[in-house]
Protein: ATP binding cassette subfamily C member 2
Organism: Gopherus agassizii
Amino acid sequence: MVLKGYRKPLEMEDLWDLKENMRTQQILSRFDRNMRAEVRKARRELERRRCKRSLCEAAPDHRNGLGKAQSQDILVLVTPSLPPGLDLGLLISFVADPTAYAWQGYLYALLLFVTALVQSLCLQQYFQLCFVLGMSLRTALMAAVYKKALTVSNATRKEYTQGETVNLMSADTQRFMDLATFIHQLWSAPLQIALSIIFLWWELGPSVLAGIGVMVLLIPINAVLATKARRIQMKNMKNKDQRMKIMNEILSGIKILKLFAWEPSFERQVGEIRVRELKGLLHFTNLQAFSIFIFSCAPFLVSVASFAVYVMVDEKNVLDAQKAFTSISLFNILRFPMATLPLVISSLVQTAVSTERLERYLGSGNLDPSAIKCDPSLSRPSRVTLDIKPGHLVAVVGAVGSGKSSLVSAVLGEMENLKGHINIQGSVAYVPQQAWIQNATLKDNILFGSDLDEARYQQVVEACALLPDLKLLPGGDLTEIGEKGINLSGGQKQRVSLARAVYSDADIYLLDDPLSAVDAHVGKHLFDQVLGPDGLLQGKTRILVTHSVSFLPRTDEIVVLVAGAVSEQGSYSTLLANGGAFAQLLSTYGSQEGSTPEGEATGMWAGAEPRQEAGLGPVEMFLSGVACRRSCVRGACGGWTPWDAATECAALQVKFSLYLRYLHAVGWGFSAWVFITYVAQYAAFMGSNLWLSDWTDDSLRYWNQTYPTSQRDMRIGVFGALGTVQAAFLLAGALLATRGAIRASRVLHQQLLSNILRVPMSFFDTTPTGRIVNRFAKVRDIFTVDETIPMSFRSWLTCFLGIISTLLMICLATPYFALIIIPLSILYFFLLRYYVSTSRQLRRLDSVTRSPIYSHFGETVSGLSVIRAYGHQERFLQHNDRIVDMNQKSVYSWIVSNRWLAVRLEFVGNLVVFSAALLAVITRDNLGSGIVGLSISSALNVSPTLNWLVRMTSELETNIVAVERVREYTEVENEAQWVTAQRPPPGWPSKGEIQITDYQVRYRPGLELVLHGLTCDIGSTEKVGVVGRTGAGKSSLTNCLFRILEAAGGKIVIDGVDISTIGLHDLRQSLTIIPQDPVLFSGTLRMNLDPFDQHSDEEIWKALELAHLKTYVLDLPERLSHQVSEAGENLSVGQRQLLCLARALLRKSKILILDEATAAVDLETDHLIQTTIRSEFANCTVLTIAHRLHTIMDSNRVMVLQAGRIVEYDSPERLLQQQGLFSTMAKDAGIVSAQATVL
């Protein structure tokens, strides 16, 4: 496979299949079994212990593996400690003794080589087992989190945002995998330390205790550093979560930010969090630098202490080469366990945090289905609150917030049951108010796991009015839908959602306002063909929540809800005769009776007419990649993303310029100083070693003489001084490197953020949000730049200089070694080239197969109620198992390729040792024993360092790509300047006159025009309605006024200023829009209304009062500081719409644009909004993009658009007489004369 990966980019087919016992399903069932057993055993104990133990037993089939690993571990520890150390002693004494036979030398050299080989093989086998265990552990946890997500209760769902649950699955499970690799160090490190000490005692006697004393002193220091680091890390996780939450919201509400010119406010918010995050990171990395410093000094301090004590204790103790270098190689063996122990401990600490988080989630409450009974034999209880007869069409009506959607949720069992129960007989299908679309083909979205019955499928597609849309989509029903249905309009999403329900052929249909997002004629079609008495669903039980009065006479029964209770129930005629709440509702709005078939519409392309083309845009983009990559890997966001595949492939040859770009972000000064300090540190290191080798030759010089005290003190003094210098440079280098790294993080994030907020809207229409989020994410690019790259860079530099210094020392001892370096370097280079390319491919496949896991998980969390309603949990679980297994395949291959490399590298390292030993034996006549000791003990260090160097090179190459991915988004073309030198006059626009002259616009260069030369004048304070069939260009017109779309020709002049000459913010802050979808951000109510704090509290209360929200807000405990949850989830759609109205009232500019703001609200709220607009914006110019004609019948003029041209433009009365397009639309809507409407 390594060869294959070197020759061509690897695909998933090239990887090995997983063994049966490593498949997700197997692992999860074992995990569950163990978890259940543990829970039973420990019911009375704290939850905390319960989970920990079950996690440890997640993969029992590796128990034997661990046993094996342990026995090998002991072998590993014993082998390096015994032979190399003792062999080294034998070799040194051989060189020192001129009378020894040559064959002894060769035997010792060979022994050294063989023991090193045995050690390599054992160690790699151990790592293999540990990695596989870690992988199984991660799988078990990912599957458990996913399984939990399908059954979790609503209370728990509210506690965790979608981002937090995805984090549990990504970051927290990864921690366990990382820990598993080194968990055995917890017992083997102390064992290694103990063994080394015993051998040292043989060499140096009691003076070893001085060295050990130093080590013991260092342990508490490190413990203090570790706990501090943990506290900082915990705080920083919160900052990261917060930053990601805001970023998610910014990206989902980017259109609103642009329309309101709010980007600076949000940029500031993210900036503030980022400053806190980097401050935490700086503290953390400084602590890290200190602990690295302490541990790098440890072996050196230990040897200084031991040697000094050894020579001072007794006059007769002279340090000879054998003692010194055997001790030094034993001290070096001590380095590894001493260095890994704190790392393992801190990893253990981080995993403990993750364990707690996972426990809290896995142990949280499940949905309680006990309130829902499906028992046909239940006799009718006497007190039935609501009884729906089989086969009836029941409409549920009521004001905003009266509990209509809650009723539907309760029937689905999604609400918390306080008392009573619901009895359902038959299967259920559910259409939510906001359609949930999967990232799959349109056909898969409709079939939703059922088998394809072609005739029925065609019938459903036709009935749901999807045929015209299928013609528009490039791949018909096989078009890949982006995440969250990004390339469908609101109306299309709703119809797909309805088609899914109809196709599922259930017994009971719960329809939560499916007609609110579609045009009038489409709504009528859907009611006639699907929902109504003669539709596809006739004879099924249908509960239809609706605001549309016109369909009510054709329902079997109507349920009226008031404040969460059923106030009346009966047929249309009965309720009218009763004269209750329903009759009142009708009499208030009944005069629109004629017009309401216009229904609750928001065009097929739902306010995003860019989406006609965006209907093509993203899809074209998703599909064009099929040709370029056969396997068409699903990319970071699930859509077919040739783009990601392309960057990943481009990343195959990592350019040197990327390293330079990163160093540039660090700052050249910083980079140079870091390099200088590291070089100085290694110079001191070589100096101290050479000094030691010279010192050991004293034992020969002063043979049988007393060792002069002055000589002894000088030796110890210089040795100590060189060590101190080395330590000082090391600390300086580490601190400089952390400063530089933080600087780079700040610079790159700042560039990325400010650019993303300045790119044009078309970029967001064609780029899935997930892909942009990945750039900022905790586990992806910014995280890599923050934490991974600096570490990799430092380690790489250390290894590189370490190897250079070692080779130099060997060459000083035996100059012939230089000849051997050449073939060894060539061998090494080839290994590196082969491995690094394959490793990078495997890492790429890992990240490419990992993205679908998270996007599928995110999708599941957001569509939970739909999945549960249809009872498809099992199918989603299986799909999750499949994609996790795909990811496992690449992870497993990566693990094996690492072992492949390690075995070969260690072989190269062992050859270095063998060559050094052999040369020492051959040229022993002209070598001192000190220099031989130095040469071979250095060579023993080569192998692990080489291994590490390759690992770091590969890590760096893999990670530096993050810099490229970040840079790519910092170079996306921006929209026009926010503020230019030419500012509009203060108070502009004062009149509100708009002149449009021959205005043409296209979505992106190279596409067709969408508006073909519009020309019209709109007078000051005039009220103009804009109408037209779907796709006529209505919403494009608003986008042009705000310059979301730039002109391809012609101009728009407002109050004498050509809008293309001023800055975007000057323009956008001077206009007001009430958009179609009410978008809110998490934060306080006040922040949502006035993010720049420009208005006083009085003004805000006044706006709320006019928006009819004052009483609601006064009742809230925190009033204006009330926290709005993500996307405004804790307010009803109607309340969100009213908040958007309050926003507009605060702005109070001379021009107001209404993008069918009343599509999703009931008649009462609609009435409130219309009245407020009439009174408050009387002296403003108002443009209304209407889908329901009755809202614009009292306009001064109506502009009728068709295919991007103005076909009629006059007062509604005249247009009705003209018998043109407008009068046909009015007839469809049942409007006869302009006076027929009150509103």
Remarks:
- Confidence is low (pLDDT under 50) at residues 53-83, 591-652.
- The domain at 387-587 is CATH 3.40.50.300 (Rossmann fold).
- The chain has 42 helices and 20 strands.
- Residues 1133 and 1161 are 7 Å apart (CA to CA).
